[in-house]
Amino acid sequence: MTLSREAMSRHEALGTSQRPGAPVRWSFECSACGHTAPGANYAQLCPSCAQPLFVRYPSPWPTRDAIAPRWDMWRYRAVMPVAAREEPLTLGEGCTPLSEARSLARDLGARRLLVKNEAVSPTTSFKARGMSAALTRVRHMGFPGLVVPTNGNAGVALAAYAAAAGIPARVYAPTATPRPIQAQVRAHGAELRLVDGHIGDAGAAAREFAAESGYVDISTLREPWRLEGKKTIGIELAEQLDWRLPDAIVFPTGGGIAIIAMWKAFGEMRDAGWIDRDAPLPRMYVAQADGCAPVVRALHEGAERTRGWEAPATHATGLRVPAPLGDRLILRAVRESGGDAIAVCESDIEAGARTLARSAGIDACPEGGCALAATAELLRTGRIPADAEVVVFNTGSGVAYRN
Ligand SMILES: *Cc1c(COP(=O)(O)O)cnc(C)c1O
Ligand SMILES: [Zn+2]
């Protein structure tokens, strides 16, 4: 929660306007134990229980009139962790298409099916949103560099945003990370370290390096900013639907930041009256691969947390997260929303991506294919009713996975 003395003095040497000690308009609240702390430019896990911290804003929230006339996710800056006159670090993330897929809706038996296509984001995945927010907060703090463990896309995003900020970056990724994604990380000048094992092993290596180097660890949910960036997919979805939300959202879930962030955004928007306070929120559906489905298993066991998934394996590498740190929050969002979680097999994931490419013109990543395959199964079994309006997320570009 507090900065090390070295980071403070490094920072003072830089003399930036967002001083670590300067008052900010947000505060932190632990998502698990309720511990609260004054806001700052940097925080990691809750100091009393080591669970993720949420950013909280003073009430009342601004009205929708506070939306800025700009065409990136920072149009929602009034409800994001950024100071009034601060220019965010942006590469134009956000404002991605929400396309109606009529023939798919007909084939799958849904009243209406929309695809939110994050493949067109800078760095070709929705990870851009989180990194834009994280680097906006930490870039002036004088850290010697930034480090992240990743299944690939968060590494590309970190590499690109760190390059834009002029800060060194190091990325720890499993050897199974698709080659084009590895090449993208290197193209932006980041140092890529391949790790034998899964993202949990990469996380351990990243934390060890952070401890010895002073690099900031911006792992999923270990710091509060990436969640605030991802939150914008939920706000943007509401704005694209003229301030209503769909009946169902199907999201390919790994670490779970997106599900948790959308659920936070929906609650905040409802409390603030940005969306109808009396309308039901969407049912949240988690899509996973059957070679790594810790959330599906925990949900159906009635558990509050996941058990680590043994030998996680799937070509939808973004979903290869055997023990998500935010498991409790993912499960809570799914249960509170009345949603569900479902695992699909590798060939259905492939078929799903092919269908999005051939029937909707969207060159989906395997994770997007997983979400579509899950949607088909949920509709087929009536778990999503045929009269529903469904939003399926394609989280990244298929191009990056073609070895
Ligand atoms: C990271 C990632 C996911 C998983 O997202 P979470 O928010 O961590 O659950 C899904 N698809 C792609 C392409 C990703 O990069
Ligand atoms: Zn706590």
Structural class: alpha/beta
Q: Into which percent range does the helicity of residues fall?
A: 25-40%
Distance between the termini: 41 Å
The CATH topology of the domain at 98-125 and 226-401 is what? Answer: Rossmann fold
What shape does the CA trace take?
globular
- Number of distinct beta strands: 13
User: Class of the domain at 98-125 and 226-401 in CATH?
Assistant: Alpha Beta
Strand content: 5-15%
> What is the CA-atom radius of gyration, in angstroms?
20 Å
Spell the H/E element sequence.
Answer: HEEEEHEHEHEHEHEHEHEHHEHHE
What's the number of helices? 12
**Which small molecules are bound?**
pyridoxal-5'-phosphate, zinc ion
Q: What order do the strands of the largest sheet run in, or round the barrel if closed?
A: 4-5-13-10-11-12
The profile of the biggest β sheet is: 6 strands, mixed
Mean pLDDT: 94
* CATH architecture annotation name of the domain at 98-125 and 226-401: 3-Layer(aba) Sandwich
Give the uncertain stretches in residue-range form.
1-18
Architecture overview:
- This protein has helices at 5-14, 102-108, 127-138, 153-165, 179-187, 199-213, 225-240, 257-272, 294-301, 327-337, 346-359, 366-380; strands at residues 27-30, 36-38, 53-56, 98-100, 112-117, 146-149, 169-174, 191-195, 216-217, 248-252, 283-289, 340-344, 389-394.
- The chain is an alpha/beta fold.
- Residues 1-18 have low confidence and may be disordered.
- The longest helix is centred in the middle third of the chain and has 16 residues, at 225-240.
- Helices cover 36% and strands 15% of the residues.
- The strands form three sheets. It has a six-stranded mixed β-sheet with strand order 4-5-13-10-11-12, with helices on both faces. A four-stranded parallel β-sheet has the order 8-7-6-9, sandwiched between helices. It has a three-stranded antiparallel β-sheet with strand order 2-1-3.
- Helix 7 (225-240) crosses helix 8 (257-272).
- It has a domain at 98-125 and 226-401: 3-Layer(aba) Sandwich (Rossmann fold).
- It contains twelve helices and 13 strands.
- Bound molecules: pyridoxal-5'-phosphate and zinc ion.
- The site of pyridoxal-5'-phosphate (PLP) has 16 residues, from helix 8.
